[in-house]
Amino acid sequence: MSHVSSIPGGLRAGLNVIIRGQVPADTDDRFIIDFQTGDETGDEAAQNIAFHSSLYVNSGLIVRNSKIDGSWGTSDDSYILNVKAGQQFLINIFVKSDVYSVAINNETLYEFAHRVPLAQTDHLHVHANCIVDSVIFKYTETVDTRILNTTTEYSYSNA
């Protein structure tokens, strides 16, 4: 199943995106997480993809990349995924000023440097072989830790 949602307020440092879902038991391939420009979902869509993460369930491979003006950049690959078919997952993506920091099932696995300005990215697309149960967009802004720390949370749920 595919999940597309607009990112409330757009992508920005301090945003924490929490994706809960599951990998169907009969899956033998991958699922994909994209932070992208626009809500188009076709493979040939011309939008920029600021952060693309392909998670290969059987091999454990995670491929990170970005697509700028229709062209893919150089991928960053590693065999660190510990999610199996038939399992639920929790993916936490924290947007920092210079990188995306990604934890899967409460284990921080990798960082990916920004290649597209954050302000240009306004949609989340989770697709391929997974079922998305819920997505939470949680933004925390610290003006001065002694005075104010505000959190705004938006949730999308299949339930």
UniProtKB/TrEMBL annotation:
Against Pfam families, the record matches this protein to: Gal-bind_lectin
Q: Which SUPFAM superfamilies does this UniProt record tie to the protein? A: Concanavalin A-like lectins/glucanases
Which molecular function GO terms apply here? carbohydrate binding
The UniProt keyword set, sorted, is: Lectin, Repeat
Q: Which InterPro entries match?
A: ConA-like_dom_sf, Galectin-like, Galectin_CRD
Q: Transmembrane ranges?
A: none
Is Repeat found in the keyword set? yes
Galectin domain sequence ranges = 3-138
Q: Which domain of life is it from?
A: Eukaryota
Protein name (database record): Galectin
**Organism per entry:** Sitophilus oryzae
Name the gene that codes for it.
LOC115886684
